[in-house]
Specification:
It contains seven helices and no strands. By secondary structure, it is mostly helical. α1 crosses α3 and α2 crosses α3. The chain starts with 11 loop residues before the first helix and ends with a helix.
C-alpha cells in the first residue's frame, strides 16, 4: 500500500477503498455541522463524484482533505441557494399596472363587502352558492352531493344571489 499513497485515485480499487474509509465520517461531519435538512447523503455522493471527476489531480494522501473541503463547500452553496429561494418566496409580487390608487382601494373595499355578504348568507345558501360559483359544479352535481333536489339547489342559489345583490350595493 505505501507505493499507492502518492498515486492518483483513478484506480477503482483505490477509489473504493477511499469510499469505505471516509464515506461515513464525511456523512457524520455534514450531519453534525449542518443538520439533516441538508441531506448529508447527497452531499457525500456529490463530493465523491467531484473526486472521481478530478481523480488525476488528487493523490490518495490528499483525498480525505479534498472530500471534506468539497462536501463542506457544496453544503454551504446549497444553504446559500436555500436562502435566496426563501428571500424570493418572502418578497411580495408587485404587479405593475396602470390602475389608479382609487381603483385599487375600491377593489379592496368591494372584496371586503363581498366577503362580508357571503358570510351573511345562510349555511345552505352559502354552500350551494360557493359550490356553483367557486368550484364550478352544476346544479345537478350539487343536488347529488348535498342529497337534495335540483329545484332546492336552484332555490338556494337564487336566494343567495338575491341576498348578495341587496347586501352589496349594485352588483
Amino acid at each position: 500500500m505505501p507505493e499507492d499513497l502518492h498515486k492518483d485515485v483513478c484506480e477503482e480499487r483505490l477509489f473504493s477503498e477511499l469510499f469505505k474509509m471516509h464515506a461515513k465520517n464525511l456523512h457524520d461531519f455534514i450531519y453534525y455541522k449542518y443538520g439533516d435538512h441538508i441531506n448529508p447523503k447527497d452531499q457525500v455522493q456529490e463530493a465523491f463524484i467531484k473526486l472521481w471527476d478530478n481523480c488525476k489531480k488528487v493523490t490518495f494522501l490528499k483525498a480525505k482533505s479534498f472530500l471534506f473541503t468539497v462536501a463542506n463547500n457544496l453544503t454551504l452553496n446549497e444553504i446559500k441557494h436555500d436562502k435566496v429561494k426563501l428571500k424570493f418566496q418572502q418578497q411580495e409580487i408587485k404587479d405593475r399596472t396602470n390602475e389608479t390608487p382609487e381603483y385599487i382601494l375600491e377593489e379592496k373595499e368591494y372584496l371586503q363587502k363581498y366577503q362580508r355578504a357571503i358570510s351573511n348568507l345562510t349555511e345552505p345558501q352559502r354552500v350551494a352558492f360557493l359550490l356553483n360559483r367557486i368550484e364550478g359544479k352544476k346544479h345537478r352535481e350539487i343536488a347529488e352531493l348535498l342529497g337534495i333536489s335540483k329545484k332546492a339547489v336552484e332555490k338556494r342559489i337564487y336566494g343567495a344571489l338575491k341576498k348578495l345583490k341587496k347586501d352589496i350595493d349594485g352588483i
